[in-house]
From TrEMBL:
Gene3D superfamilies: Helical domain of apoptotic protease-activating factors, P-loop containing nucleotide triphosphate hydrolases, Ribonuclease Inhibitor, Winged helix-like DNA-binding domain superfamily/Winged helix DNA-binding domain
Name assigned to this protein: Disease resistance protein (CC-NBS-LRR class) family
Sample GO molecular function, one term: ADP binding
NB-ARC domain span: 1-165
Family: Belongs to the disease resistance NB-LRR family.
Cross-referenced PANTHER family: DISEASE RESISTANCE PROTEIN RFL1-RELATED, DISEASE RESISTANCE PROTEIN RP
Superkingdom assignment: Eukaryota
Key words, A-Z: ATP-binding, Leucine-rich repeat, Nucleotide-binding, Plant defense, Repeat
Residue span(s) of domain Disease resistance protein winged helix: 254-321
Gene Ontology biological process terms, A to Z: defense response
Amino acid sequence: MVGRAWNSLMKDERRTLGLYGMGGVGKTTLLASINNKFLEGMNGFDLVIWVVVSKDLQNEGIQEQILGRLGLHRGWKQVTEKEKASYICNILNVKKFVLLLDDLWSEVDLEKIGVPPLTRENGSKIVFTTRSKDVCRDMEVDGEMKVDCLPPDEAWELFQKKVGPIPLQSHEDIPTLARKVAEKCCGLPLALSVIGKAMASRETVQEWQHVIHVLNSSSHEFPSMEEKILPVLKFSYDDLKDEKVKLCFLYCSLFPEDYEVRKEELIEYWMCEGFIDGNEDEDGANNKGHDIIGSLVRAHLLMDGELTTKVKMHDVIREMALWIASNFGKQKETLCVKPGVQLCHIPKDINWESLRRMSLMCNQIANISSSSNSPNLSTLLLQNNKLVHISCDFFRFMPALVVLDLSRNSSLSSLPEAISKLGSLQYINLSTTGIKWLPVSFKELKKLIHLNLEFTDELESIVGIATSLPNLQVLKLFSSRVCIDGSLMEELLLLEHLKVLTATIKDALILESIQGVDRLVSSIQALCLRNMSAPVIILNTVALGGLQHLEIVGSKISEIKIDWERKGRGELKCTSSPGFKHLSVVEIFNLEGPRDLTWLLFAQNLRRLSVTLSLTIEEIINKEKGMSITNVHPNIVVPFGKLEFLEVRGLDELKRICWNPPALPNLRQFDVRSCLKLPEAATEFPRHANE
């Protein structure tokens, strides 16, 4: 990494280099190595100046450090900032210098400090470290470099150095246990160093086993974690300007370690918890949510997932978040966060009266027979368990609960009638459950605005939902047994506040009809066409302007046509592409009829494409059809420019993906199986220059 940074900095055209990364990742160490490299051989430079900026340091503090490094130690208290800038500028103007700024938290006005402009003639350089990529952009650097956590082998090497040879050689089992401890640091050099040093005196197997237990259960209780690691990381949290953004960040700690959560799901939780204004229109609230996620990623408090639709939290950052959320360990009873720890029952040691948020997701809990008095509980996450039964009394005394997630409990077929006692409930997720009907008492949930019934294969009907739940804003029926028909369309029109609809449709006539009902079709974000039989279907990109996810399953459709005219208003006049603006996921399974899927050219923002077991498809993009589309719509040129995931499986007749294999600069996963007629050359795409 030192070599990369040095080579980048030594380019003639390079003037400024920003090194960015999360707290504790080793940015200062890297900058110090660059400093030492300059000092070993000045490489034609007259001066190397190191300045520690830190979060609250003002311009004058930076000036005084520079003046000190220039050997000007006279008293500067009575000299104005402008006069100091003049002194500095006069000296640096006749020098070839390197200015190293450690720990920038925001843009620094170098001119006000007295640093003269960098030019090819003077050959001077500036390198700085920061936790935020935004600072690199604000400083208008001409080179930036991300400092990542260490890969496993290098992390283990660093950990061994900090522990030392004596403990590692004191028992044959300790190296294996030590590797487990090192893995808990997730490659973060700060954690590897602090925990490694703390383990340097532990020479028995029992001591190492105890440490593993502590790190697995309550990492913040590990010696030095609270004193040396978490406070350092907390600076990034403190730097978040908005209290609501801080709440959004802390909420992310409810998920298991290394868990990738969908951005949309996070935003939905935040809206119902009140962190984001749910009264905004859907785009406004959604955009705000994505802006918050972006700011947390740029601050290295969240990380992008394998696909850009998801984010995750570094394990050490998660420990910090749990520590902060429990008021720095002083109010642990307000949280019960035990996801993915193989629980078979709800823990008995919970202080229900103090509890604010509870996450028992990804466990093995089958039955909930206890009752609870939890007046302050606002979020309860029970998804991905093995739930079969929930007792009548469990929900009876949770008056403040606003978020309830029971999804991915496939054996859960019914809900207790006492769910009606959840008078504050705004969000309930029942997707991928065995729910057969909604309780009659559901009508008492007057504040419910978000109902997720996706992938509910046993659900028989939601007749009467508009009168029972008139305040619904989000209704999700994607890939559900409940399909949109004429009567359900009429009922959905009664939901005056509906903003988001995901739907399953079997009848081609209903598909055509719903695209003519502006108030319904404009709210559709995901659409599943299941068991549909029709010679031709038409998808209108104007009507389906909000469509993000399209799935076609078990259908016989000879041709899929794209229409970009607004019904009754003539052709849509626009300077941009006439395609789907938001369609990012297309999944096609067992589709019979079409030979190609050239219509996908109208999905220029596609990020995920899966085509499986569709035996008539010979190519994804056909040359003649593709060129006829691009001739009419010049904006549609390169297919799949944003694609991250491509899967083609069980396509017996597939001969090519595209006549001219496009560059796929963002492709992260490519899965090809059982496509016997697809030549190997057809799966070789031009690589992006940065790959």
